[in-house]
Amino acid sequence: MAQKFQNYIGGSWSDSGSGKTFENRNPANWEDIIGQFPLSTAADVNSAALAAAKAFKSWRLVPAPARGEICRKAGEIMLRRKEEIAAAMTREMGKPLTETRGDVQEGIDTAFYCATEGRRLFGYNTPSELSNKLNLSFRVPVGVCGLITPWNFPMAIPTWNIFPGLVAGNTFVFKPAEDTPHTASILVEILIEAGLPGGVLNIVHGAGEVVGAAITEHPLIRAVSFTGSTNTGRIVAQTCGKLSKHVCLEMGGKNAQIVMPDADMDLALNGVLWGAFGTTGQRCTATSRLILHEAIHDSFVEKLIQRTQRLKIGDGSVDGTEVGPIINEKQRENIERYVGLGKKEGAVCVLGGERPEGEAFKNGWFYKPTIFINVLPNSTIAQQEIFGPVLSVIKCTSLTEAIEITNSVDYGLSSSLYTKNINDALLAVRDIEVGISYINAPTIGAEAHMPFGGVKSTGNGHREGGWAVFDFYTEWKSVYIDYSGHLQRAQIDV
Ligand code: ADP
Description:
Helix content: 25-40%
Number of strands: 21
Number of domains: 2
Oligomer: single chain
Number of helices: 15
Largest sheet: 7 strands, mixed
Strand content: 15-25%
Bound molecules: adenosine-5'-diphosphate
Strand order of the largest sheet: 14-15-16-13-12-18-19
């Protein structure tokens, strides 16, 4: 009998009013059922929003350092439970334990970072243009926030939002992805143990089109943070726009790694293997285009094929696995559709392009690391986000051309350049249109205390991570204190 999980609303665990549930299965072995989770309704979201609005009244008055203290305790609990959380995460979303440990570590780093931020949350003070007048500006919480997250970073992404949002004084209605409800439930347990009062964080499980849509539409929810696909992000943005809500969008990427002839080739090779096939290519920052200078193209491709062939595909809970399964059948079929399109449009598939065969793979959604060469920069597989282990290799003749190709997509999340030429490196940092730019490192590897997000269709100008996320989770309040004892009128000459 599969374990039964519940929503957490207003400080207690409860089933959905619908009485219905959905199953969560292990993508490496679909016979392994992790649990039954509530298939919630808009009525459940309403209960959660009411609880969060009620809790906001007192939570906003708790001093920010005390709110930070709860994050610190949560970080300590996560540290203690790190191995267990990583195992649960691997079981429900497939990436190898080495990576799920890193995902939990990102949550721990964010907890400790946010704990200390509770003692800063700096505002700005300026001189007044009038005499005997004091100008101050403070950050104040937004109110009830909705959080809609994807499955690929089940601990990192929720904590990037929840910890700073809580420290800033907000309360939450949280809807995790249908594929990773277990890790999200563990996070809620941790915050309860850390002493978070009831109603401050509410989790409502269920389908995006029902629970996610209800969060986006609920009048008590003042801000929505969304990470996921571009199509869904646009729906969320349209609804939030109509209702004048704050919205933070973190959507797709089509990230490129450029390799110049003067680069350290082994370093560049290790970089692309990790960037393209880490998390089975299922990261918004994954390297999905490799732009090679013609002078090193053929030799690099040859070595890349040899190294990629040696990557160990399998169940992420088994030691030594480097490439886990795809998250679900629908996504594997989507990858297959793109591989078909790549072939149809004339690119040459030199590795992979199929499911692995054998007993070890028969009950999982596995797909082989796949490499296309002769890819045209404007072809479908070079333009659209695939979200799988598919790498498109594009040839270039100069850095200028490589930068043009890099910028020729709708997205602008992450980029990477391998070179030893400092001038080329700085030029690329200046001219590549992305939110995150790496030199001599792969397109993946964000740190918790740095701003995270992208330009163009990747986002809408907000950033998660570090100090930048507080701009989303706070409003500014400007305060003028006039101690002159008479009426002073700003901007009036006499
Ligand atoms: P993916 O393809 O990675 O699953 P989605 O954008 O579909 O990306 O999902 C990201 C998150 O958005 C998930 O939690 C999902 O349930 C949620 N979601 C899906 N559809 C909607 C919607 N119409 N409104 C709000 N949230 C949604």
